[in-house]
Amino acid sequence: MKEAILSGKYPIDEKLPTETELMNRFNVSRYTIRRAVGDLESEHYIYRIQGGGMFVQDWHKDWSIDNDSKMIGVITTHIADYIFPQIIYGIDQMISEGGYSLLLGNTHNNHQKERKNLINMLNSKVAGLIIEPTQSALPNPNMDLYQEIKDDEIPVLFINASYPELDFPTVTTDDAGAERKIIDYLLDMGHESILGIFQVDDIQGVHRMDGFVKAYQQHPEISYKGNLVMYQSGDSFDKITQRVASALKSPDRPTAIACYNDQLAIRVLDYLKSNGFVVPQDISVVGFDNYQMSQYMSPGITTLNHEKEIMGEDTGKMMLSLLQKQPVTSIMYDPQLVVRESVASPKLLG
Predict the structure, then answer these.
(1) Helix axes 30-42, 19-26, angle to 10 degrees
(2) Which residue, of 68, 166, 169, 325, has the fewest CB within 10 Å?
(3) Pairing mode, if any, of strands 303-304 and 337-338?
């Protein structure tokens, strides 16, 4: 019932179902219904009129920017691994200086889990929200909650990506331009047949794939040699390697593989080694994000930098400005190429 109220299914002052109707809907006792209704009433989500029934309370009052909440909600697709701890650390550094603390949520890139996190943040009466969109290239079923958040004027910042339906400020990376930069590097090294592997349910992956294509468009004489593997976050790595194995067996096999991120590049590197390929002597591999582990691989992975901690610090500063009702401008970083040992010219191959 609370989720239905928060998402706007039941507008302010609308009459709610009777106790009997709720008993039938949820298949519970009258005692259970009355306890739940009592909790909703004490939390100011509903009010009762003697002999008239239950109605939705004006709970928006609790969400005005003037409230005294000192909690900032941060929702990311992951928390404890990859580049996210450094981003969260940067956010916390800035937010704590302003007297705020963080409430963390993790969606695992799943829309239903994103919904639960949004409900939890609203229920916790956060002063602002910092969100990494979930499966940002796909239609989002949680727009009702986002519209409620927007209507309630809760400050929101998006990081790494955004939803096209919403105009909240963003802190992102020039994914298309950066990917074009690393593909240009491979082409300049003499690679003509490059396999790109991109996650296409996140807008970052779509943009990186776009950068891959744009790089080849500048070389029409060899553009037919480029090849793509597209996958979604829920796909198994086996599905990806089946496509990679097929490409490696073709007569015009790739001399380089460009991966969606370093996390994928590390797994591809391991797959190649386990199948008898030597990197970069047999095939080159590049990633994206400059994940800390990528420099310690053998060979070190050529990649594109991700600002990480700086992104977190800038996001934290922007959120403090929004909380003070100051205007902010979206930020887009230009990742720089990080050259390591995972790339060699195919002309040097034996």
Answers:
(1) 110
(2) 68
(3) antiparallel
Amino acid at 5: I
Return the CATH class of domain 175-306+337-348.
Answer: alpha beta
The tokens for 126 are 């956060």
Contact (CB, 8 A) for 260 and 198 = yes
Helix or strand holding residue 185 (H, E) = helix 175-188
**Domains 2-62 and 175-306+337-348 equal at CATH topology level:** no
Domain at 65-173+308-333: CATH code: 3.40.50.2300
Residue 249 CA to residue 255 CA, distance in Å, equals: 12
Instruction: Read off the tokens for 229.
Output: 């593997």
Which 3 state secondary structure label does DSSP give 310?
Answer: helix
Instruction: Return the pLDDT at 68.
Output: 64
DSSP code of residue 193: -
Pick out the chain residues at pLDDT < 50: 63-66, 350
Look up the pTM and report it.
0.82
Q: Where are the domains of the chain?
A: 2-62, 65-173+308-333, 175-306+337-348
SS3 24: helix
Q: What is the fold, at CATH topology level, of the domain defined by 2-62?
A: Arc Repressor Mutant, subunit A (1.10.10)
